[in-house]
């Protein structure tokens, strides 16, 4: 189609104006993209929290922010996301405290077996002044903590009934990237294998590992229960998430947007943390109804034996994690 020189100039000017507007030529219309990869399924507590953050952020700041959530390790596994956030390749992270082992030992307080009896105890500690200092634990690595999301308490599953700690001897256990969790399995006489979450189902299915520990929600949504005939309801540990952002990126946001996103995240955190137990309860019931796994509920005496078997783990990591931090967590757990 023939266009006169005047129309051509006019179209070129319009195109330039559109590009400037989209790229922030006016300083107000820049679109900020927040990539948030994580490893669990969309229906897990973390999957739901991430999706809600996306929806609310985009609704409240139309055209100014796009949150790209990549669930189920579809973009990367946790260990890669630690590098990616530090280098600014992704802007946001929601990874299990356990996988930060190589960046800070302080998060390992959440891995100590039997420290927290339930999610309420964890919540009290996270909200305490000492717990809140953990938000700043990765500042040196250029990562700002904005909140903590819960998943739930961990159960242990295997190819045979694990009623007493001695039943786990000789089994190959998948664990997250955490020395405490590795020591936990060694104390049982098992053989620990650190492995990315996305590889666990296949490893259990093919017998690369025999056993694992996780929350009801993760065991259900990643279908571990299909390949693990026994699950012991031990509630011996906690899975929760450090939610952080790349500091340079965050500080580059216009103030109103940054504050608005922080307020949105606080709201989402409250919403998600109030639902995590219910999600785990529902998904436990679905496992039970499937008939694929038998759920074993240990007696208080049997539980006490597991607790005793974990004493060497506490002794080994007391100084690594910091006796003060552990003491503060115990106090909060006791409700003091
Ligand atoms: C794991 O076992 O790696 C999980 O706890 C991961 C997660 O993000 O819940």
Stretches where pLDDT falls below 50 for ≥5 residues? 1-26
Count of alpha/pi helices: 13
Bound molecules: (2S)-2-hydroxybutanedioic acid
Shape designation: globular
How far apart, in Å, are the first and last alpha carbons? 79 Å
DSSP strand tally: 10
**How much beta, percentage-wise?**
15-25%
Q: Could you estimate the helical fraction of the residues in percent?
A: 40-55%
Chain-averaged pLDDT: 93
**How many whole angstroms does the radius of gyration measure?**
23 Å
What can be said about the biggest beta sheet?
Answer: 8 strands, mixed
> Pairing-aware structural class of the strands and helices?
alpha/beta
The string of secondary-structure elements, in order, is HEHEHEHHEEHEHEHEEHHEHHH
Oligomer: single chain
Summary tags:
336 residues, alpha/beta, two-stranded parallel sheet, 10 strands, globular, disordered N terminus, binds (2S)-2-hydroxybutanedioic acid
Task: Give a short summary of the structure.
The chain has 13 helices and ten strands.
Helix-strand blueprint:
Layout: H1 5-23, E1 32-37, H2 45-60, E2 65-70, H3 78-86, E3 92-96, H4 119-127, H5 129-133, E4 143-158, E5 172-175, H6 179-187, E6 191-194, H7 200-206, E7 211-215, H8 216-221, E8 230-232, E9 238-246, H9 247-252, H10 255-290, E10 294-296, H11 300-309, H12 311-321, H13 323-334
Parallel strand pairs: 1-2, 5-6, 5-7, 8-10
Antiparallel strand pairs: 3-9, 4-7, 4-8, 4-9
Helix pairs in contact: 2-10, 4-13
Bound molecules: (2S)-2-hydroxybutanedioic acid (LMR).
């Amino acid at each position: 189609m023939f266009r006169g020189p005047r129309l051509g100039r006019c179209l070129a000017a319009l195109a330039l104006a559109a590009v400037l507007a989209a790229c922030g030529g006016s300083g107000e219309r820049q679109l900020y993209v927040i990539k948030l990869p994580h490893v669990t399924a969309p229906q897990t507590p973390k999957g739901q929290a991430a999706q809600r953050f996306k929806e609310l952020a985009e609704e409240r700041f139309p055209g100014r922010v796009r949150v790209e959530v990549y669930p189920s390790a579809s973009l990367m596994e946790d260990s890669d996301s630690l590098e990616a956030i530090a280098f600014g390749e992704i802007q946001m992270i929601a990874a299990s405290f356990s996988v930060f082992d190589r960046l800070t030992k302080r998060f390992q307080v959440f891995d100590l077996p039997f420290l927290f009896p339930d999610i309420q105890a964890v919540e009290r500690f996270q909200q305490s002044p000492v717990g809140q200092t953990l938000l700043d634990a990765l500042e040196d690595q250029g990562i700002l903590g904005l909140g903590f999301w819960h998943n739930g308490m961990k159960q242990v599953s295997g190819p045979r009934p694990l009623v007493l700690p001695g039943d786990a001897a000789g089994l190959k256990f998948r664990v997250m990237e955490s020395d405490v969790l590795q020591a936990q399995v060694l104390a049982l006489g098992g053989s620990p294998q650190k492995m990315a979450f996305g590889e666990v189902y296949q490893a259990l299915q093919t017998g690369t590992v025999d056993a694992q520990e996780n929350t009801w929600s993760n065991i259900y949504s990643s279908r571990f229960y299909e390949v693990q005939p026994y699950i012991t309801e031990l509630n011996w540990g906690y899975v929760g998430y450090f939610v952080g952002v790349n500091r340079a990126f965050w500080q580059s946001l216009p103030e109103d947007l940054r504050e608005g996103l922080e307020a949105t995240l606080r709201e989402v955190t409250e919403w998600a943390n109030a639902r995590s137990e219910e999600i785990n309860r529902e998904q436990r019931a679905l496992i039970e109804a499937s008939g694929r796994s038998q759920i074993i509920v240990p007696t208080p005496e049997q539980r006490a034996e597991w607790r005793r078997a974990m004493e060497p783990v506490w002794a080994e990591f007391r100084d690594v994690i910091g006796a003060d931090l552990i003491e503060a967590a115990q106090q909060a757990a006791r409700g003091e």
